[in-house]
Design a protein that fits this description.
4 helices, zinc-finger, 0% strand, Four Helix Bundle (Hemerythrin (Met), subunit A), elongated, zinc ion binding, mainly alpha, metal-binding, disordered N terminus, Znf_DskA_TraR_CS
Length: 132
């Protein structure tokens, strides 16, 4: 499941094609999910605009929380989609499956669970410790 052209460990084209199809399918799913979430957000805004008569502070707070949740969902979907776009670019560059930090091969098991992974477990843990 790993692809890397610069070290002579390139995978057969059939493996690369299979990986590409998988990554592209998830990217497409996220794009569709984003489109649905945008539509739901627009509907929510239209309902808010047309239904503000008699709102008290609790109603306004609820609407604000719903709007914030919808925006957060949109950002999350865009972030995930960008990760898969980056994974596809790395696949094209021949670096998919190798840690961006230390260039060690990312375990296949990690890529199967998290296909857009860009770091090996060691580098990921190190980053998380520094962030804490």
């Amino acid at each position: 499941m790993l692809v890397h052209d610069t070290v002579g460990t390139a995978r057969p084209q059939t493996d690369v094609d299979r990986i590409r199809l998988s990554l592209q399918a998830r990217y497409d799913e996220l794009s569709e999910e984003y489109d649905r979430a945008v539509l739901q957000s627009q509907v929510l805004r239209l309902v808010e605009v047309g239904d503000t008569a008699g709102d008290d502070q609790a109603d306004s707070g609820t609407k604000t929380a719903e709007r914030d949740t919808a925006q957060s969902l949109l950002r999350t979907i865009l972030d995930r989609r960008a990760q898969f776009e980056h994974a596809l670019a790395r696949l094209d560059a021949g670096t998919y499956g190798f840690c961006e930090g230390c260039s060690v091969a990312i375990p296949v098991e990690r890529l199967e669970i998290y296909p857009s992974a860009t770091a090996c477990v060691t580098c990921k843990q190190s980053r998380e410790r520094r962030a804490a």
